[in-house]
Each structure stands twice: as structure tokens, then as C-alpha cells.
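Data card: per-record layout.
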Amino acid sequence: MAIQMFQKRNSIGIRHLGVLFAGLFLSIFSLTSCYNEPGFLGNNLLPDEDIYKVKIDSSFKVSAFTLTKDSLNSFLASEGVMGYINSEIFGSTKGGFVGRYLPGISTDGYGGPSATADSIIFYFTASSFYGDSTTQLNLRIHEITDTTIFWDKQNALSPVDLNYYDPSPLASGPLSGKGSLKLYLPLAFGQSLIDSLALTDSKIFYTKFKGFYVTIDELPGYGGVAYNVSTSNMYLRLYYHYVKQIDGNDSTIRTSKTYTFGSRFYEYLHDYTKADPSKKIQHLNDTMTQDSVFYIQSLGGVYGKISFPDLAQWRDSMPIVIHRAELIIGNADATTSLPDSTISQLLFYYKDGSEWVGLIKDQISSTNTLNSNGSYRTFRNGYSVNITYHFQKMLKGEYSDNSLYVFPSSNTTIKHGVLKSGQNSAPIKLKITYTKLN
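The structure for this 438-residue chain is written out next.
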């Protein structure tokens, strides 16, 4: 009985094996007849007899232009840039700072009427620098005279109005090397801060000291240096002493108080006219004439506008399913006296009408944070960004502004880029993988 069962199962297995070989033969034949290797962009990935065909197209026209920003909000920023850089391409960038200092709230006071200032020092310690650290900057500190400068939303790209600060500096000193400065301020200024009542009420304190405007003098020629610095590394320290009776004897107590920033903002001033005429940005704010390159810059400098002239033509071909839309942008070689500041990632923003909406969703992760899409690729010396979701929305006509706006990923360090436009010999490409629905 066991032998009969084995023989029966064996015969069934043989029949199944025959069916398997027949199926395998048909599968190989089917794969051979259905797969056509695309010999050029736009060729079918599926044979002509298929209902839906996946195609690749990279002939889509793309244009790119360079624009300037009108405003930038740096209010309450915890870090920024201080210094002066002049580029043959981008012109000059000067970083300054405006802030109100506050002592720690205390009822201990300064030790009574005998309290005397010994010194008051402004400390500045940079975390990093860009440019030539042998360059010596002149840092100036001016007293703020009107605290309303902190009430309005200050535009970081506009110079601080002279009406808000004393034009005569309270102190100035050299800043160079790795960016460490210990600047002594007038002793009379330190003595003016010694008011025990002011330690209990910031309003009283601000009647004595409204804040500082910290700025840098311009430099001749090209080059310079700029320092990255956090507000916690720009502070005041008052060293003082007072007399206190201990066991019936007068004793001198030496101590100090630290004043740190409260309300604050950074100032970034760009002057494109200081660029080398032979290397400067051409067609700035001109969206009709396309140069062979376009420019982007951090700290509220120039940014790129990318438009898609063929969009209307593609809309006429709807319905279309976009499987992937990849924007490929090359990095143009640009020689200046400044060190390289390659941008690690390009950010793509969009508008609806005249209103900024935000970052394209293709660059936002599932956790609502920035993903790595649009990062610099060393092997291609350029950038690749997947814009599939946004491009499909553009085709459907969901936005009244169908341009993308390009910025560096960092806005608290010196970064600038010269990128290839649609008029370049190696132009921007939009590589689209799609299916045309019949």
C-alpha cells in the first residue's frame, strides 16, 4: 500500500513537472517578446501593443534666473554671521548684530553703596569662520538710544537707522584669527550699570542701558573674513568689588555679573555693485533674459527662480501619470579669491500667486522634517532633486505660480553657488518618467 501511494504521488509530481517546464518556456518567450531595450530617451519601455506605455523624456525646457530678496526676519536668532566678505561675483556682505542685554534677575543687588566697577568686558567667541582669518576686522560697539527698534519686525536686510543708535562708538577693537575678542568698555559705563533696584526690574535696567549695535567696518579689495557666532558667545561681564563687614571688620568682596542677550536680531547687508564688473551677476532681477548660469546665496542674498516653459504643452497631453520627475542642476566652476563654499543641499520653495507657501512636499519627510532630497552629489558636481509630487500638482493646474524658487539649505553661514541654467552648454534637465493614459 505504501509503495502504491508513493507511485501515485510520483506520477502526479511528474505531471506537475511537465506543467512547470511548459510554464517556464512560455514565461521566457513572453519576456523576450515584451521587453524592448530603450535605445534613446523617450523610447517605450513596454511594446507598442501594450495599452499603457512608460516613457522617459528629458527634452522639457527649463529656465533659471537670479533674483534679490527684499526682506529677511532674523529676530531672536540664536546664531548668525558677523564679519565682512567681498566677492568678485556676489559683491560685499556685511554681518552685524543688534541686541538688548539683561542681567540675571536678583534681589541680592551689587553689595550696597560701596560697589565699584573694576572693569567691564565684551566677550566675543566665534564657533567657526569663512574666508581669510589673517584679515583684521575692526569691530565697533554702539549704544542703542531707542528701544522701539525691538518692537517692530526689523528687516535684517536693511541698515539700522541712525536714529536708533549713538553714531559715536562706545568702544572698538580688532577681530581676527579664529574670532576671539575680549574688548574692554569704558569704566564709567560699567559703573552706570551698578543699580541694585535695576536687578529686580528689567524696565528700570533698560532706562540705563537699552542695548548694543555691534557692527564691522568695510574692507578694501576682495576677500575678507566672516565669523559664525551664537548669541550665547557674545556677552558682557562686569567685574566689581564692594565692602562688607565680616566679624566687625571691613572686607573687600570681588565678584562679577554676566549680562546676556534678550531681544535681538542680526543684520546682513549685501552690495552687489562692489563685484568685479567682469565677473558680477548678469541680468539681476531680469526674468526675461536668461544667462548661462544663475546664482544663489545665503543670509538673504540672491536666490534662483526656475520656470518650466513647456508646462502648457504637457497639460495639453493630459491625462498623464508622472512616475518620477527629477530636476538635475550642474554646479558651474567659478574662480574667486574666496575659499570654496559648496552648498550641501538646495531647497525648493513655491508660491501660490504672490504668497509664499513653503518647501515643496518632495523635500519633507514623513516626520515633517527636511529629507536629503536635493543634496550635492560629488560624482556629478551638481544636484538632483525629485519633484514628482509637486510636478504632478503643477500639471493639474493647482498653483497659479508654476515656478520653483531655489535657496541654500543653510541661512546662518556664508554659502553661495553658481549653477548652470537652461542656456548653459550642459543645461538644467528635467527628466520625466511618465505614462500617457488613453
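Known properties of this structure: Residues 2-34 form the longest helix (33 residues). Residues 79-272 form one domain.

See the next section for split statistics.
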